[in-house]
Design goal:
Layout (H helix, E strand, L loop, with lengths): L4 H38 L1 H16 L2 H15 L2 H30 L3 H9 L4 H35 L1 E4 L2 E4 L3 H10 L3 H28 L22 H7 L3 H18 L1 H50 L2 H37 L3 H14 L3 H20 L1 H30 L3 H9 L4 H36 E4 L2 E4 L4 H10 L3 H33 L3
Antiparallel strand pairs: 1-2, 3-4
Length: 540
């Protein structure tokens, strides 16, 4: 294999464009997630609207509706700018949902004492944001940035080349370049490109993610120092620096003092409470009304984009519904299998390294680099390596299903690891001290410390992983390499990819609607119940 300077320059240019897109869109996604997550946690009507929608959209693979967005933007904007905007839209929708859930979870778990403190000290809205909400959300944001970075690489490399019927739409980047090499059979160049990608990931981790990760231990709700650290009155960083040594007095005696004041001015307090309740009710009504208005507009635009026709043509047809139902059951079986493997492998690792301090952060850095290698770039190599070796033993159909399991696992298991890792990292040190003092170990330690500490993160990570599993299935269940089509026998994602490849966007719309219905049902029957249970039952 001979590599020219022109080839190296082309690879570096592709990496620069792809990674530049990712980090610009990552920043935009974090800012938007902070706003929506805090709004959902502090305004009940907003949470009742945003969180269910977020959960559903997170579980719908964004690449399924990407062709519709692509065609819409090409029609309205046109040319390369329309394709670029479509790719950027796809990446934001791939990044933002788990970030919103992470912020929402963190703000919802802020102890009531902290809200009493900000009321006593009369923090302004901006000060509450910078001293309370953002520090409280910091660990979950960083925990979600790590898998989101990998998710962004996953989707951007997939979306840089999309085939709709006879039309190929592409923007230049590592995804389009790797597919070019795969179709030419130049797998050696793909390995070289992967090495450059690993280098870019390492630089991103060292200069961006690692400095952010080092600050994770700063933001905890605790009032005693960890063993071996310099004594501090509290470690809730930005908030602690504002209230300094008086936090303990406020936490321990503030409620009693306020009750005494209340008893001496019951009439004034009654009017104040009544006014506050009226204000909260008005805020809920106004916020809910605005959000419902925008949701209504979105639903109208979706219907006008062809989804209404797709529903009437395919989803009111009995044979189509039977086909989609059986395909969905096959994909749910694949997801359940991969989730079981992800749980068994990722949760123990996340707990172990989350409790290891610096050692854990070092391992997590290496794990992040490896896990961020985009699966769509690896997919041709996975197929080229496993399929010919397993086909003589298992047959081509089962061999390709094995490839699908590998790709699906690699596409989402990181969400479980990093969310559980972030939760384990945030377990207050006083609880760890109690466990060490009373020599609690084994099952009791798992039951009374680890499980309550990681369960909210496990639920959040599982919700995020569930959506990404669908994306992994869509990437791998139907693919064309060197004019040869690889496809599973039954699968919902195979049907949608085949419909897009054949230019049948109306059928793709119908499958999208069906998938949304399935995901919504699972969301309310399983994930929302688990999420509420984790918030109410396990609050450190």
């Amino acid at each position: 294999m001979f590599i020219t300077l022109h080839t190296i320059a082309l690879m570096l240019y592709a990496i620069l464009l792809t990674f530049g897109r990712i980090w610009i869109l990552m920043l935009a996604s974090v800012l938007l997630a902070i706003f929506l997550g805090i709004l959902s946690a502090r305004v009940k009507s907003a949470g009742a609207i945003i969180i269910p929608i977020t959960d559903v959209l997170e579980s719908v693979p964004v690449v399924s509706f990407f062709p519709i967005i692509l065609i819409f933007l090409i029609d309205r904007v046109g040319g390369g700018l329309g394709i670029e905007l479509a790719v950027d839209f796809l990446i934001i929708t791939a990044l933002i949902w788990n970030l919103i859930l992470g912020v929402y979870q963190s703000v919802s778990q802020i102890p009531d004492e902290m809200f009493n403190i900000v009321k006593v000290y009369r923090f302004s809205g901006l000060k509450r944001l910078t001293k309370l909400y953002i520090p409280a959300s910091y660990n979950q944001i960083i925990a979600n940035i790590m898998p989101s970075f990998a998710s962004a690489l996953f989707y951007i490399t997939f979306s840089e080349v999309i085939t709709v019927g006879n039309e190929n739409y592409r923007v230049f980047g590592v995804g389009s370049l790797s597919l070019q090499y795969a179709n030419a059979g130049e797998y050696d160049l793909i390995w070289v490109l992967i090495l450059f990608i690993v280098g870019a990931i390492a630089l991103s981790y060292y200069f961006i993610i690692n400095p952010l990760l080092k600050r994770s231990g700063t933001y905890k709700f605790e009032t005693s120092p960890e063993e071996g650290e310099v004594t501090r009155e509290t470690r809730f960083s930005a908030l602690a620096s504002s209230v300094n040594t008086r936090i303990r007095q406020v936490v321990s005696s503030g409620v009693t003092a306020l009750e005494s004041i209340n008893r001496s001015s019951e009439g004034k307090e009654f009017n104040r409470v009544k006014t506050r309740r009226f204000s909260e009710r008005s805020l809920n009504i106004i916020t809910g009304g605005i959000l419902l208005f925008f949701v209504g507009i979105a639903v109208y635009l979706v219907a006008q984009a062809g989804f209404a026709d797709a529903f009437s043509k395919y989803l009111l047809n009995g044979s189509s519904l039977i086909t989609l139902t059986f395909a969905t059951l096959f994909d749910l079986a694949r997801i359940a299998t991969v989730f079981a493997i992800s749980f068994a492998t990722m949760v123990p690792l996340a707990i172990y390294f989350g409790l290891k301090g610096k050692t854990g952060r070092f391992f997590t850095g290496g794990f992040q680099i490896l896990y961020s290698i985009p699966v769509p770039v690896l997919l041709p190599i996975i197929i080229a390596f496993f399929t010919p070796r397993l086909t003589p033993i298992l047959g081509e159909r089962i061999a390709f299903n094995f490839d699908v399991f590998v790709v699906t696992y690699l596409s989402a298991a990181a969400y479980i690891f990093f969310n559980v890792y972030g939760s384990a990292l945030s377990i207050p040190s006083e609880l760890k001290t109690i466990v060490r003092t009373y020599k609690i170990s084994g099952f009791k330690k798992l039951r009374y410390l680890l499980f309550p500490g990681i369960f909210p993160g496990l639920v959040t990570g599982s919700m995020a992983a569930f959506g990404s599993y669908w994306g992994g299935l869509q990437v791998s269940e139907y693919i064309v390499i060197q004019d040869k089509t690889y496809a599973v026998h039954r699968g919902l994602m195979m049907l949608i990819e085949r419909a897009i490849a054949n230019g049948n966007l109306l059928y793709a719309d119908a499958i999208d609607i069906y998938l949304v219905l399935v995901v919504t049902a699972l969301s309310f029957l399983v994930w929302m119940r688990l999420y509420k249970y984790s918030q109410n039952r396990f609050r450190l």
